[in-house]
Amino acid sequence: MAGTGYHSVFEKGLFNDQVILVTGGGTGIGRCIAHELASLGALVVIAARKMDQLENTAKEIRLLGGRCETMTLNIREPVQAQDLINTIVTKHGKLNGLVNNAGGQFHSPASKMSPKGFATVVDLNLMGTFYLCKAAFEGYMGEHGGSIVNIVAECRNGFPGMVHTGAARSGIINMTKTLAVEWGPYNGIRVNCVAPGMILSSGMKNYPEKVLDGFLDNSWLNPAGRMGTESEIASSVVFLLSPAASYITGINLPVDGASSLSKGDAKANTAQPSFNPAGSKMPPYIGWPQQEQGQDQGPVLKELDAPEPMMQLYAKYKSKAHKL
User: Carries keyword Transmembrane helix (predicted)?
Assistant: First the structure.
């Protein structure tokens, strides 16, 4: 099956003999992160509530020659977080990396959001991330070191339509900075964030059609002129977990085509650039195996499971992607 594995830009064997936990690793960005880490030699443990999705991803990784284990987890339960970390360390003797990717939210204006809805998303995203970080520290990293990457969302200019997740993700960013300072002296623990902008991902299936239309209408309103790919998030996570980031801790890395620095196509404001909706000048990075129909090269993966308009957009991106 040579040549069929995930096409990472990083050196093969980079994470040999390392054990890395990815929460929410059964679908979307988490699945892509798990694939890339496994392609680089890591034993990847993916954890989430839905075992069927986890098993599907683990099967894909194993068919491509990687190592992947699955475990159930509700990140809102601190005892489950502790038990998960203890199980991994007992079985494998270590936990070198943690990627806090699991989470969720729903679209709603703040004026129509209930207190319960707000609290639920904050509990899931902010508290769930804290539970995993604390469990990893107490169960292994406090004594042996390690690296943590928290997946948030680009929210430096607020998060209209999702005030609950904006508040939670901002809290995670601040928590990450605090943990980087407090835990750095404990055998060099590094804690960082990756903040995706608009990404073509299976997570898009969770939003109503009207919201998706808004995403598509504005997908080019940034200097990159496009949305991002799951691979572009995964590679950022891999970098922060790698020795190349040995002197990087406490940062929030936006992966958003600079959308957070721009205001889109402001025709009435000559101080702002007018972005071109006709197409991006920045080729995407897609790490999924490039296979042609009819070739006997091993398993063919379904790279993306998103609403049809976004699948069409992804096909265009793929035709312009960097060839690896």
Answer: no
Tally of CB atoms within 10 A around 146: 26
Amino acid at site 92: H
Distance of alpha carbon 255 from alpha carbon 261, whole angstroms: 12
pLDDT band at 275 (very low <50, low <70, confident <90, very high): confident
What is the helix (H) or strand (E) element at residue 178, kind and residue range? helix 163-183
Q: What is the DSSP letter of 97?
A: E
* Tokens, residue 188: 């060099």
The pLDDT value recorded for residue 101 is 95
Domain residue extents for the chain = 19-319
CA distance 128 to 142: 19
Structure-token match 């993916």, residue found: 46
HSE-CB at 128 with a 13 A cutoff on CA atoms is 28
DSSP 107-135: -B-GGG--HHHHHHHHIIIIIHHHHHHHH
Q: Is 141 left (phi over 0), alpha (psi -120 to 50) or beta?
A: alpha
Q: Which CATH architecture best describes the domain 19-319?
A: 3-Layer(aba) Sandwich (3.40)
CA atoms within 13 A on the CB side of 283: 10
Number of DSSP helices (H) and strands (E) in the chain, helices first = 10, 9
pTM: 0.90
Task: Give the separation between CA 315 and CA 317, rounded to whole angstroms.
Answer: 5
Name the percent of the chain lying above pLDDT 90: 59
274 within 8 A of 280, measured Cβ to Cβ: no
Which H or E run includes 216?
helix 209-217
